[in-house]
Amino acid sequence: MKIWHAKIISLILAFIFTALLLVNCGDKADTPTSSADTTAAAENTETQAETELKPDLPDVDYGGKTFEILTAGNWSNDWTEIYDFTADEQDGTPVNDAVYLRNRAVEAQFNITIKEINNMGSSVGGTGKGGKFIEKSVMAGDNAYDASQMGAYDVSVLAYKGFVVDLNSVKWLNLQNPWWDQKANSDLTIRDMMFYTTGDISTLDNDCTFCILFNKKLIADNSLDDPYTLVRDGSWTIDKFVSMAGSLSRDLNGDSKMVQNDMYGFCILQDSMMGMVNAAGEKFATINQDGNIELTLNTEKTVNMLDKYIPLAYDRNLTYSIYHSPDEIEKMFANDQVMFYTRYLCIIKKYRNMDTDFGLLPYPKYDESQESYYHTVAPYGCSFICVPMVVEDLEMSGAILEAMAYESVDTVTKAYYDITLEGKTLRDEESTEVLDIILKTRVFDIGQFYQIGPYNERIMDLFRKNDKDFASMYAKHEAAALKLIGEINEAFAAIT
Prior knowledge:
About 45% of the residues lie in helices and about 10% in strands.
C-alpha cells in the first residue's frame, strides 16, 4: 500500500527510465533462476509491498525546517558517480533523477528541505576527521546535524564512544522493515542495540560490495568451463577459481618477462585477501549470543582458504597486482589481457563502453558443501546511516529517515539496480542473476569495521610482502586485538 505520491513517482520513473524491471534485489533467490521465475517473483514482491507494507509515519508539518544530513566517508562522489542525498535538478541521469524525486516527495510530505553537508573524501573518512564532526557537535550541543551517513571506520568508533543514538530506540524508525538491510541487522546488532545501518536509502553500500568480473572472450577462446554454470550448480569454489585463473598466462611480447603488456588469468585487488576470508563463511570478529564481540579470524577454514588462494595471488607470472596503478589494470581488463578481476561493484560502470562482453561472478565458495556465497562490504569505502546523540528533534530524524528509505525502494534502488547496472552496463541475464546473489549474501564484518588487530591491514600486508605466514602474523597482533575487543565490549556494556 503506497501513499499517493509514491505511486505518482513510480509512473514518472517508468516514463523517464524506460521500462523499469519489477525487481527488488533484496528478495531474490540465492541461485540464478530463469528470467520468467525472476520476473514472477519480483512482480509478487511488488504486489505484496503495494498491498501490505507501508511505514508507520506521523501526519506532521515541520514548518519548512531544513533536515541536514552530514556525509563523511572515504570515497568521494567522483569515484562512485552517485550522490545519495543531493540532486538539485533532474538531468536525465537515472540515479540523480531518482534521488531528486525521492527528496521532493519526502519534502512535500513533511514540509521540510533536505540538505546534504558533504565531506566525502579520503582525507576525512577513516582518519577520524569524519567522526570529529559529530563529536564536536554533540559536545557543543549545537544540533548541527539531524542525521549522518558516516564512514564505517569512524561510525563504529562513534558507536562505542556514545556519540550516536541506538536506532532501535528512535520513534518512527523501524529497522525491521524491508527497506532497511536485514543482513546489517543480523551482523551489526550489539546487545539489542543498532547504532548504524544501511538499506534502500543509500546506494553506496552496493557500490562497496566485493565481486569478480570475467572476460567472456578469454573464457571461450581457451575452452574453459562456463562460470555461470559453475555458479548455478554450486561448484564455483576456490579450487575451481584458482585452477581456471592459473591456466592463462602468456608472454605476449616475447621478452621472457611478465609485465603490463602481457596476458594474465587474474588481476588481484589487495582487499580480496579480506574478501576471501568472508567468502569462506568466516569473519574477523563476530557478535556472540551474549552481545559481546569475539575474535573469530583464526579458524581452520580461514587458514585453508588463504592457503589455497595465496599461491595464485602471489605468483606474478599468473597474477597482475592492483598494487600497481588501478588505471593500468582497468585498461588491461578492457584490452582483453585479464580473464578474472576482483573488485567492487562500482567498477562495473567503468566498462560501459568495453568492446568485449564481460560478466559478473560471486566470490568462490570454500567448497561445494558450503550453503551460500558470501561477499564483503568494503569497510574502507562504505558509509552508514546514523543519528548523532544530540539532535534538535529525534522523532523528526526517525520519521524523515524512515520515509526516505521507504521512498527509495521505487526510486533510487530501481534506478541504480535496474538501469545503471542491469540496463546499461551488465550485458547478459546471467550477470543480473549473479548480481542478485551478491547483494543478498553480503557480509558486514564488525571485526573489519572496528579494525580489530588491525587485521585488515595486516592481512593485506601479507600480500604486499609476499608473506605466506598467516599464523605468525596472527599471533603477533592477537594481544592488541583482544585488548581492543575488551575495551569495546566494556564500552557497550556501559551503554546498555
